[in-house]
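Last lecture ended with a question: if I hand you only a sequence, what can you say about the shape of the protein? Today we answer it with a concrete record. The protein is Fibronectin type III-like domain-containing protein. Below, first the input exactly as provided, then the predicted structure, then a couple of comments.
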Amino acid sequence: MLFLSQPFRKISVPEMKMLKKFKKIELQEGESMDVSFSLSAED
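The predicted structure:
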């Protein structure tokens, strides 16, 4: 999950943090994985 914080919020956007990206992955016990996200200027 990727959350973005907004130090300077607009009135129309009340949330301090917004979920912008989500990627579901499955891991076995003890396994790890790198996950990357691409963001646009609108994000």
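Comments.
1. The two ends are 14 Å apart (CA to CA).
2. The mean pLDDT is 76.
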